[in-house]
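Changelog excerpt

This revision adds worked examples to the README so contributors can see how folded entries look when concatenated. The first example is reproduced verbatim below.
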Amino acid sequence: MRYGEGAGPYEEGATGGAGSYQEGATGGAGLHGEDAAGGAEGVAGGSGDGPGAGVLCVRFRLSREPDAPDLLPALLATAEGLTPLVQALPPDTALADVRGARRYFGRDVAELAALVRVRTLALHGVVCAIGVGPTPLIARMAAREARFGTTVTVTEDGLAEYLDRKPVIALPGVGPATARTLCSYGLDSAGRVAAAPLGTLQRILGARAGRELRARAHGIDPTPVTPDALSRALSAHRAFDRDELDRDRRRRALLSLTEELGARLRAEEQVCASLQLTVRYADRSTTVRSRALPEPTAHTRALTAAAYGLHEALGLQRARVRGLVLRAEGLRPAAGAAHQLSLDPEDDKAHRLEAAADRARRRFGAGAVVPGTLAA
């Protein structure tokens, strides 16, 4: 699919000139048409090497089995063969800024994306889907649309048209509750949000949230691609076999995630400063929320309370959830972390029980001690 700028932006039967909507063309012009590397290429706004298209978002199709090997570090190393600006987004995604690589290798962004696909498949047997955009935000949106083995590219020239018809829930950070609120005001698409006055959005969502949403609706994302993010965070994920509507089942999954993260943090003698919750829905969209912790901690009880708070704030009454990813961020050595003294005897008891459970796990295995809620 090509989004042009001439008359008749959705004119069928055009033959590839500027200003045409072309479907099923070869050579990479059509959305999901075959490219030279055998994958499908979707281009919004012209050629795959348009101005500003230099950030790749790569989704790897990794096994979700508990005993599956962790291939993400090796896959990141493969991407680092093209550019040092590679950021991990566990459990299965990475961002790569290839603007410098385009000049260094003398290849356009479509060729670099195809090279990433070929290398990950040849070296690791892993299929990936790639989104290309001028910013990490747009690249991530494009990657959600890409089928495995394909690339979807959005250039700056086609950015406005690409975003115009997107439902508002497709914007990162917009969950079902926020989407319902915006739709009740007639702001049901990214284009309408972009056209709305800033003051209107701020009255609906608040000053900061309204300002950030309007920026996203225009495709603005000042966030850089930050290398070596994998070493500063730990993540765990749970995938559901079917669309999960039950709130209690999702809370049980969150409890298992905080148990896992807490045990890993304590085993590595680290604490985290914040939690990030990513919710994956049946339509492949995601919602990401973060929360700073009152103090850096590896205490499962504190992590669970924060995770539950993030989950409740999303208001997922009827959302069809397919997976949860919980990420502990801002890691630092536990020895240097300050801890506020508590006079609550229950808190001290919980810490002692946690230490005893960790000793049992080290001796008998990770499943030796689990909360009663998870054992039921």
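The second example, added in the same revision:
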Amino acid sequence: MDPFVRRLVERLHDPTRPLSRNRHFHTFDTPEGRSALKVSRRLKSLQRDILSCSREGHRPRFFRHVGPEGETRIELLMERIQGRRVSHLQDAEFELLAQLPGVREALEETLEPAA
């Protein structure tokens, strides 16, 4: 992940120093800014689903897959009453997700993905 995009996502999620999309519209009018907004929305959505899954009594799980070129992909699995959500994240995205309130405590790492 581009360091600038990562920093923007961190600032979007930081409640003590929020980054206003309206005030900084020039920043978000660039490809990097649009990418940061997209990642931010995706991570917030995952956070909501993870916390909802935990409240329903299920444990969201994640699996680490190492690709052929050594890159790591995270598969996030949430089984809920309404169905199942599987998301694939890069390491940097997963680190940002884990920094969101309540997420790290709710996740459980498993060694093998469920069939």
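Reviewer comment on example two: The beta strands are 61-66, 72-80, 83-90, 108-109. The chain has one domain: 3-109.
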